[in-house]
């Protein structure tokens, strides 16, 4: 999928993006929100293999602003009507500027219109209030809170919130 809006571009990740993804994934500051405050300790080879093995069931995307990579997104097909997504704006200087709503609007619109999904699901850390606010502005509904459902890299218990968005409840911010 390729989506554009003003200076933003979302496109499928290629092998040329592997080094950038590897740097982001190994950066504890970037990965802390996902429970990896020390990064995920992956290798360039592992990232390349993941990109090469992408298919229509799971596909990673790169977010670019003025042709510079600022983050990543992924969707995973759960069934013919439903997919799960993830997003990270990895360039901290690009956070808190309203891009999240626009980027998610572009991506979700593509999932509904190009891939014919009827529902998009995601989860986020219970403490990630900024993300929760964005998801709810797009029409996502809280499904459940998973209290102390997993341990992060340092052994701390973490809680998550499950969200879902039905196509006819999507509020685009484009």
Automatic annotation (TrEMBL):
Residues 8-164 form the N-acetyltransferase domain. It comes from the Bacteria. Keywords: Transferase. GO terms for molecular function: acyltransferase activity, transferring groups other than amino-acyl groups. The keyword Transferase applies. It holds the Pfam family Acetyltransf_3. Signal peptide: none annotated. PROSITE patterns: GNAT (PS51186). InterPro entries: Acyl_CoA_acyltransferase, GNAT_dom. PANTHER family: GNAT-FAMILY ACETYLTRANSFERASE (PTHR43415:SF3), SPERMIDINE N(1)-ACETYLTRANSFERASE (PTHR43415). This is GNAT family N-acetyltransferase. It comes from Massilimicrobiota timonensis.
């Amino acid at each position: 999928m390729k989506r554009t809006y003003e200076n933003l571009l979302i496109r499928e990740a290629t092998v040329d993006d592997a080094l950038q993804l590897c740097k982001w994934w190994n950066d504890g500051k970037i990965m802390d929100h996902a429970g990896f405050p020390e990064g995920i300790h992956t290798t360039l080879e592992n990232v390349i293999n993941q990109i090469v093995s992408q298919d229509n069931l799971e596909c990673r995307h790169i977010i670019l602003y003025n042709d510079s990579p600022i983050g990543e997104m992924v969707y995973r097909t759960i069934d013919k009507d439903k997919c799960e997504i993830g997003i990270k704006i990895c360039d901290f200087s690009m956070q808190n500027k309203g891009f999240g709503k626009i980027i998610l609007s572009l991506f979700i619109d593509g999932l509904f219109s190009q891939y014919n999904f009827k529902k998009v699901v995601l989860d986020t850390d219970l403490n990630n209030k900024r993300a929760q606010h964005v998801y709810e502005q797009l029409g996502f509904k809280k499904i459940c809170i998973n209290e102390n459902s997993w341990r992060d890299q340092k052994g701390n218990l973490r809680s998550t919130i499950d969200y879902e968005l039905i196509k006819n409840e999507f509020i685009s911010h484009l």
